[in-house]
Task: inverse folding
């Protein structure tokens, strides 16, 4: 589904250059639930942004569903992103002036989908994310967990095959975090979604079936774990993270 | 340190500071230009008056127009007098090839007994005042193509004569002739010469028409003039105090008011923009303020920090705004005085404009910054550092209720209803804008992006409504001005006809005798002719004297061809009342200045005597600018027995060509008639002045709309900069750049459309109320459709143009950066 070849990314801050990704090669298959881990500054979020077409690599190729992101214009990337990729952010990034249902419907309206179809999708997503009764609420009237569920519902509104989640539980307590992870996990299992999640949290990563560890802009390890978690692999990652 | 911190803050937000500065700069520029223009107009009028009356304190005239020069010799002996001159006016015709027809060749010669005194100030450009010949102005010399020392052939009672141009002097009111050959057909050329020369040329030895006196300083003028009067013992002489009051000769108060209104509006917009900018700046920097307070800054130091920012902007605004104000004032004054066809050299006046603009340029922005600066000084440290949202206290409900109550004022049958309307709209604007914005969003004519823009606008309603309101006021003012001008254009001929008094007006340097009247009545096409007199009277308001022209009214003529108009139902009643003893009728302008009521008694001073006259009404006239009064033949005789008539009115048969009668008149009385004006000439003259003034107002209003554009740009920049992250999210999950452009442009359009729609509504309602409450029947309820269309187009262009930069700025930020914004 996703083919990454030799991508490099450098940021310029003032007069200094920082090479954040130093040549990443990666293949992600359809239906995988991947956790990308690594210490701060390892390039996790940059990689996620490049996968989502929010930013462009300096060197290298990224193919998502056979579409080459680096060959696309900005508009093409936006349209591609809108139809094929769902985003879930750490701080939910809901539109504060829109209600729950308006937030969920936003990408569909942007795509000029028929109103009736939008309404049906919104109703279904509200049910599946257990947000009934909160349709008319504004983000500020919701708990963190509820806001993240709205964010997930919005990410799913265009029925993408790929969901990119950047620290989806980073702002939540363990109980709410678990709720969100379970929701993502069930979506992965039921809808065969490909989920790529950036996280610091080992517990969150344990819900994934593949863990990629980044360090200094390079892939340090790429471990697939069996359903329910491979304790040996996990132990190896913890060791690497701590080293 | 504070000044450095303030400067850095301004530099940090370059574009915001730039647009705020631009708004202040345009505000100062416009304000200086309008104040200076009004100041120059007033100065010019007073100077013209001074030059015209030669700085005199008193004039002596005669009821029979001319009198013996011996009187001048006798008055001259009075030791209280510092300067004295005798003068006489005579008419002639010039023989120049450039003059294509008779009407273009009328020359008014003024003979003066002395050129060397403080009553006359002539700036000689070429030649010599002492040489025998005539003195002409620079403009006249250019048009005649004659230089000093060259010869001009003129017509005199005893045949043609060559006279030499003894001197050419700078343009002055006393020598103000036509500014072009086109103007020459209805304006006399003017020239000065010695009194002796006139007396010789016209074979009128010892005759003079007027004496002008300037008394020495610290002289009790009333007792001196009484002494002169007593010594002369001549009942025919009229002693008149010279009242220098620029208001008595022009009716530009409305024009001044409109100029001030536009200048004020420009400054107000600048102040609003500053208020908005500062408010947002404070909101953005609450955290910074909290930290400053934590480390020991006092509320006053915080205030100073923000006031320093304002001061920087104001100082730069003044440094750049005053010179550009000079340039705009120049343009404005050229246009304005050009419209009124004056060929007097215009020297820009700024004695009041400069300090006033500097003062207002400082005070208004400082006042505008008071609320945000106070808000900054009151920032709560704990809630700011913890980012706890402070509870908003909404005064909207109270504001709406007061607005609704004030709105009821529109039913008051008085001009105050317009003020009530304006105040009500200002108070109700946010709620009106809210309703319209919801409507725009619901009708989704701007698409999905429009509905998002609608929501954003509602969130920044206070800030956005301020700018939208200013656009609405600018449009309202534009519509009102346009409606008034359209109304005047449409009605100007009607207006002139109803108070022209016939088909031709003429005035004579000498008394109009019955023989002359008989001669005129015999001319082809003349149906009737009438002569009447005019004299000057003075009245006092407090310590100030006012002077008006009293026009003799003859009822039989006025019943069909009056020189004034009132309501149709009142006209006859007024004429009847005027026949009663000791009555006077005042022109609207004099009535307003006098301040009394119809039926009250007015005290006027004429020829040193105090007279009480009952005011029987107020009327309008287009024939006399300034203060005017009408008085019956019998009553004027009581004040001034045997005043000779010097003015005349002619009524023509239907289909008679006015200009042919005019030419016949000029040819028949070439040395008597000082002016002959036909009805159609007067209509054209009045019509000519309108387009120029209208363009000036349109130009000023365009400036106001442009500043509003800067305001919208400023507001939108702040609106989008508040929402960088939100816009980043939109772009991350679904929106293309174009959709972001469309959203922000829609936001600008919503602010603009609200301003346009409410402005048009306000404008039409103001026009209606103005027409309803105005006593001037020229002002009709006319909806200026063309201006409405222009307002819509300009408003939309300005709103869209103002949205481009903010949308471009926010789109330039990368999505990943936007998502990291606080």
Result:
């Amino acid at each position: 589904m996703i083919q990454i070849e030799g991508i490099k990314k450098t940021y310029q801050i003032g007069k200094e250059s920082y090479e954040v990704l130093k040549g990443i090669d990666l293949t992600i298959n359809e239906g995988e639930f991947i956790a990308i881990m690594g210490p701060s500054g390892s390039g996790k979020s940059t990689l996620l942004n490049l996968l989502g077409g929010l930013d462009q690599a300096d060197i290298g190729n990224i193919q998502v569903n056979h579409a080459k992101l680096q060959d696309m214009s900005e508009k093409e990337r936006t349209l591609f992103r809108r139809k094929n990729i769902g985003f879930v952010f750490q701080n939910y990034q809901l539109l504060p002036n829109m209600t729950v249902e308006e937030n969920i419907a936003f990408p569909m309206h942007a795509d000029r989908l028929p109103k009736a179809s939008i309404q049906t999708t919104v109703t279904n997503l509200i049910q599946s994310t257990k947000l009934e009764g909160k349709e008319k609420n504004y983000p500020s009237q919701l708990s963190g967990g509820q806001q993240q569920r709205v964010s997930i519902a919005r990410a799913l509104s265009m029925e993408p095959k790929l969901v990119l989640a950047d620290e989806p539980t980073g702002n939540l307590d363990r109980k709410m975090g678990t709720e969100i992870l379970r929701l993502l996990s069930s979506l992965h299992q039921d809808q065969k979604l490909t989920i790529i999640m950036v996280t610091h949290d080992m517990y969150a990563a344990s819900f994934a079936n593949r863990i990629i560890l980044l360090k200094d802009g390079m892939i340090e390890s790429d471990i697939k774990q069996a359903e329910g978690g491979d304790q040996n692999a996990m132990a190896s990652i913890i060791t690497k993270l701590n080293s | 340190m504070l000044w450095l911190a303030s400067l850095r803050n301004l530099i940090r937000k370059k574009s915001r500071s730039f647009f705020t500065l631009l708004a202040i700069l345009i505000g100062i520029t416009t304000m200086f230009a309008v104040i200076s223009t009004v100041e120059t107009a007033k100065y010019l009028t007073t100077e013209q008056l001074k030059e015209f009356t030669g700085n005199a304190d008193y004039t002596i005239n005669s009821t029979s127009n001319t009198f013996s020069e011996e009187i001048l010799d006798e008055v001259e002996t009075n030791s209280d007098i510092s300067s004295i001159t005798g003068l006489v006016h005579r008419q002639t015709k010039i023989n120049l090839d450039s003059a294509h027809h008779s009407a273009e060749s009328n020359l008014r010669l003024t003979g003066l007994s002395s050129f060397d005194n403080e009553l006359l100030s002539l700036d000689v450009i070429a030649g010599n005042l002492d040489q025998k010949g005539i003195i002409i102005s620079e403009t006249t010399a250019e048009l005649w193509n004659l230089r000093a020392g060259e010869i001009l052939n003129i017509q005199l009672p005893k045949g043609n004569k060559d006279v030499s141009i003894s001197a050419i002097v700078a343009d002055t009111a006393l020598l103000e002739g036509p500014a072009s050959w086109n103007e020459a057909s209805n304006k006399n050329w003017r020239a000065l010469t010695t009194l002796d020369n006139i007396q010789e040329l016209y074979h009128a030895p010892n005759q003079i028409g007027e004496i002008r006196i300037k008394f020495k300083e610290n002289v009790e003028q009333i007792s001196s003039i009484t002494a002169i009067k007593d010594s002369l013992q001549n009942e025919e002489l009229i002693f008149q105090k010279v009242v220098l009051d620029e208001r008595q000769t022009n009716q530009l108060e409305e024009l001044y008011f409109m100029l001030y209104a536009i200048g004020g509006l420009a400054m107000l917009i600048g102040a609003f923009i500053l208020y908005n900018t500062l408010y947002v700046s404070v909101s953005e920097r609450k955290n910074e303020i909290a930290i400053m307070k934590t480390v020991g800054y006092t509320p006053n130091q915080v205030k100073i920090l923000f006031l320093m920012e304002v001061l920087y902007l104001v100082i730069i605004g003044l440094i750049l705004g005053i010179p550009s104000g000079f340039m705009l004032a120049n343009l404005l004054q050229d246009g304005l005085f050009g419209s009124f066809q004056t060929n007097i050299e215009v020297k820009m006046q700024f004695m009041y404009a400069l300090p006033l603009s500097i003062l207002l340029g400082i005070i208004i922005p400082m006042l505008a910054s008071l609320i945000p600066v106070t808000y900054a000084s009151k920032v709560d440290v704990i809630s700011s550092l913890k980012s706890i949202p402070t509870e908003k206290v909404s005064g909207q409900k109270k504001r709406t209720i007061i607005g609704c109550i004030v709105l009821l004022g529109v039913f008051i049958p008085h001009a105050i209803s317009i003020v009530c309307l304006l105040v009500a709209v200002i108070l109700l604007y946010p709620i009106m804008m809210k309703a319209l914005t919801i409507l725009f969003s619901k009708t989704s004519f701007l698409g999905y992006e429009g509905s998002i823009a609608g929501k954003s606008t509602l969130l920044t309603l206070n800030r956005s409504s301020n700018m939208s309101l200013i656009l609405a006021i600018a449009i309202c003012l534009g519509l009102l001005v346009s409606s008034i001008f359209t109304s005047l254009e449409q009605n100007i001929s009607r207006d002139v006809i109803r108070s022209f008094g016939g088909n031709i007006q003429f005035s004579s340097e000498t008394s109009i005798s019955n023989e002359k009247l008989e001669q005129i009545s015999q001319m082809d096409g003349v149906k009737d002719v009438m002569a009447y007199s005019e004299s000057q009277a003075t009245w006092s308001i407090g310590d100030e004297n006012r002077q008006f022209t009293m026009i003799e009214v003859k009822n039989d003529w006025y019943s069909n061809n009056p020189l004034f108009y009132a309501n149709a139902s009142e006209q006859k009643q007024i004429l009847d009342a005027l026949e009663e003893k000791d009555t006077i009728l005042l022109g609207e302008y004099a009535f307003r200045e006098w301040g009394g009521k119809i039926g009250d008694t007015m005290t006027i001073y004429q020829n040193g005597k105090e007279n009480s006259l009952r005011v029987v009404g107020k009327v309008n006239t287009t024939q006399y600018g300034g203060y005017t009064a009408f008085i019956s033949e019998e009553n004027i005789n009581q004040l001034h027995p045997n005043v000779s008539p010097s003015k005349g009115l002619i009524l023509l048969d239907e289909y008679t060509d006015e200009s042919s009668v005019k030419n016949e008149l000029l040819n028949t009385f070439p040395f008597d008639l000082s002016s002959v004006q036909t009805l159609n000439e007067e209509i054209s003259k009045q019509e000519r002045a309108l387009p120029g003034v209208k363009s000036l107002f349109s130009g000023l209003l365009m400036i106001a709309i442009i500043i509003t554009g800067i305001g919208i740009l400023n507001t939108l920049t702040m609106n989008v900069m508040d929402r960088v992250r939100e816009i980043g999210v939109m772009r991350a999950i679904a929106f293309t750049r174009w959709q972001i452009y469309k959203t922000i442009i829609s936001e600008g359009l919503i602010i603009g459309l609200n301003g346009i729609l409410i402005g048009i509504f306000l404008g039409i309602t103001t026009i209606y109320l103005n027409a309803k409450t105005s006593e001037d029947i020229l002002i009709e309820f006319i909806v200026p459709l063309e201006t409405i269309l222009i307002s819509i187009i300009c408003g939309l262009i300005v709103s869209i143009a103002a949205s481009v930069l903010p949308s471009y700025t926010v789109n330039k930020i990368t999505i990943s950066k936007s998502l990291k914004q606080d």
